[in-house]
Specification:
The protein is 74% helix and 0% strand. By secondary structure, it is mainly alpha-helical. The two termini are 26 Å apart. The relative contact order is 0.16.
């Protein structure tokens, strides 16, 4: 049981590290969207607020978010 838990933690850490490395493959816009949406200390911003800040549309922000997650998932799960 203990060995399984340690292995799971190691696998999770490795997956986290790969996800962080995958961020290097995102476009500047995709990175900015994810940072504004999920990596803010006071909570994430909504699509509308991000779109306004980046002089874009809500749909562009949604699509960039989806593309970014897809790229991260593909890279991290290899």
């Amino acid at each position: 049981m203990v060995a399984d838990t340690q292995l799971d933690e190691t696998e999770e850490e490795s997956l986290d590290q790969r996800a962080i490395k995958a961020m290097a493959y995102l476009t500047k816009f995709e990175k900015e969207v994810l940072e504004r949406r999920y990596m803010r200390l006071r909570g994430g911003q909504g699509h509308r607020r991000i779109a306004k800040a980046l002089h874009s549309t809500e749909e562009d922000v949604r699509q960039a978010e989806a593309r970014a997650f897809k790229r991260i998932k593909l890279f991290a799960c290899q």
